[in-house]
Specification:
Elements: E1 2-7, H1 12-15, E2 20-23, E3 26-32, H2 39-49, H3 51-56, E4 58-59, E5 64-65, E6 69-75, E7 78-82, E8 95-100
Parallel strand pairs: 1-8
Antiparallel strand pairs: 1-3, 2-3, 4-5, 6-7, 6-8
Length: 105
């Protein structure tokens, strides 16, 4: 299965060549994953390979995304689950976007 991961977190320098950087704050990669892999499994694996993801995106100890992030999973361009969804099994063509939550006034 092929999926896309998009991080809007100014991490492009720390992630290296595996991720494309269309802008300074956006890093995108496409990858093949095994059938049955969940969002949690994927980000645990990514945090192992890219320590910055474990520090700023995904807390491997509790298997959750850090609370200052919004995580959006889409499949066939339809929203599957906003904000969380670590237990969702991935399907071919799924896209995961991780965005910072901004508060302002």
């Amino acid at each position: 299965m092929r999926i896309q991961v998009e991080l809007w977190l100014w991490l492009n320098k720390e992630l290296g060549a595996d991720f494309q950087s269309p802008s300074e704050m956006r890093s995108v990669t496409e990858m093949d994953v095994e059938d049955g892999m969940t969002v949690q499994n994927l980000f645990d694996r990514l945090a192992d390979r890219y320590p910055i993801i474990g520090l700023k995106v995904f807390n491997r100890q509790n298997g959750k995304f850090y609370p200052n992030l919004s995580v959006i999973l889409t499949s066939s361009d339809e929203l599957i689950r906003p904000y969380s969804g670590e237990d969702n099994a991935l399907k071919d063509g799924d896209r995961i976007k991780v965005l910072p939550i901004y508060v302002g006034g």
